[in-house]
Amino acid sequence: MTAAPKNPKYTFEQLINEDFLDDSHLEAFAHALQLDEQYFDHHTEVSSPTTPGSPAVATPSRIRKVSALSDFAPINLKVQSRRKRKDKHRRHDWWFLLLRWPLLIFIFLFIAAEFGLYVLIRQVVNGKEWISAWRGKKGQLRKKLRAARTYEEWKEAAKELDRYLNFDEWKKIDEDAFYDWKLVRKVRRSLRNLREKGDARGCLGVLETCIRPSFAAVESPRLYSETFLGTKDLIESYFDELEKSLEYIRETPDLSLDEKKRFFKSANTNLGVTALCLSGGATLGYYHFGVIKAFLDQGLLPRVITGTSAGGLIAALTCTRTDEELKVLLVPELAQRITACEEPMSVWFQRFMKTGARFDSVAWARKCAYFTRGSMTFKEAYLKTGRILNVSVIPADRYSPTKLLNYITAPDTVIWSALLASAAVPGILNPVVLMQKLKDGNLVPWNWGSRFKDGSLRVDVPTQALNLYFNVTNPVVSQANPHVHLFFFAPRGSAGKPVAHRKGKGWRGNFLLSAAEQWLKHELTKNFRVIRDLELLPTLLGQDWSSVFLQRFDGSVTIWPRPRFMDFIRILSDPDPPELERMLAVGQLVTWPKLHMIDNRIRIEKAILAGRRVMRTMSRARNYAALQPRAPLLHPERSSEQRSKEPSPIQTASERPISVDTDAEEAFSQGSQWFYRRGRARRAGSITSDHAKEEANYDPLSSFEMRRKWASDLLNPVNAFDSGGMHSNRASPERQEPSTSRLSPTHFFRRLHSFHSIHLPLSSERGQNIKEMKQVSNNEVWSSESSDEGNDEHIYSHSFMNLGERDEAQNGEAGAGVL
Question: Considering the entire predicted model, what is its pTM?
Fold first, then answer.
């Protein structure tokens, strides 16, 4: 009997015909859209106005204010309202009102002239490159490069083109001004020598120094823009040696488990992770399908993926499906599920005149449900695939900050509601309410029914938020926005795309054309910044559009597909299978030149991640073994064969994805409160018997009577001395009542020492501290011989010091738990 395959095979018909739609969720969403903010103002005790299936609640009418002239006048007497005075404090002065529109018109005319000149320069550069690059054998090799259907074919064509243009000679020369080649050579030699000698600690020290973002500038795009494939041989060998050294540290027995665990966590924090950012762009956003397919085929798809608008739809599909499902789905036939713009013009024109938006929110929610696997939340998607989905949205009001939704900031938020908010561009889709899934599966409005819209209006690529939440230091951006696509130029070439003339050297076109292009682009940016800072641009459709051109649209690596002219005309239309096939091919073709640069970075991240996973598995095995009773003593007759048949305590098949960076994120990924309860966990092996438990948990001042007696004796030492209990209690191994007859500063701090542990029930060190204190008490604390006057000063300082140290340790544990 053959075992079932570990990864089940899927067919396209099975995946494309899956139905994840829940009508009750759509009804709850439609009902939430009908409610206005007045309802939530009167129902602040709940986060949702209603639950699915409940009758619709009418919007409460506006409450009429009650007024009366006096205590005896009729309440319903109509009071004439006072005439409002004109506000003397206007927001703008007369000069602004007088010069605003003339100045705005003048600046826009200047921008139009600069933009026309910019387009002219770009066309001149394109014409010059076409003449110099597409002739003779070089042109034939370039056509072969562009006609490649797979990444292997593209690499072979790129290698042939590098050999023809003598770019291989540049790879063999270590010296270059764009990186510290001497330092890279020293580090590579040191790692190799230490690894071959078996010096694990020396190799560990070198790795701790060189694992940094762009160490010695080895990740500079300029080093990958001189050839069609690859970079300096020194850099290639450096990354190879770095990967081998990380594997050596992971496998070596010369380092302890704690040292390895600490190193891999530190390396992950220092290096950071790579994130894939998918921009918006309406129909142009479907080029992202080809980008995802290129990453997926080579096993380079990052774990952190973010998207806005159309990019958010592709990101949601990627983060809610496994790799096997994505390889089946990313085909041209997927176009039959893309039906967002299927309505005729007559329908959407009437809707626009009635609601101010072209598309209906509920209808789009129904269509988005397939891409998000139904009403799946951000946390559910993370636990299913291990990928972290991020969607950028902004509140409907003008000045609220941007929100990045993910499984940390909004774990129970339904993904399709976030996608609708991310696509809510004024005039296209009205702001929507984000929906939250409860434990019983019902949906309720999130954040008290606040409305949200497209985050790309302010932040299309949220690099700062990604670095804050997930330590992203290498954002890879796939940019398809039509309003910024023209301005990506790369005057000195880009990764995998050297300059077309002069054998890849110099500037595109020539220095004069590249300088003019850069100057005009900066001038356009300056003029838009002046309009924004002077608040000259009026709000259109309730939105301030001045920041649309002033964002950061690129990343460490930027991929920009080349659309056709017809793509701009069909900017709001659905692709058919042949069109989607072309978009898939174009998306892969523009991604392949960047893959080698991305691969050098991601394989180091994978080596660190593999080390963290191995260390986590070994730590769990060690903790599990420590919690088990000693088998040879309890079951000496059990054989090794019987022990081998026992189930393994380590889960491998259903293991949750490892966190990206912090322990707090690990707690969120586990979906439990173990991280915040870890301070109360009992140490394994510290208590092994009932008698030991009783002895360790014994606290002399745990009872109310003993604490009261101790306090009264402390305040009245004469009565304590007269009671005759001073010499009655000698130190003995048996449990005895503490001696309170002779009271001195020593006794005070000793009692305070034990009393301090009573007030920290949440500390993980409580049981261990009491046990240690009990051992000391048999010899020192509760012994009458320890109260010598000569030892008072020493014990006084010692007790006070221990209190300070324990306070600091426990405060540190509490702070670490919160962080």
Answer: 0.73
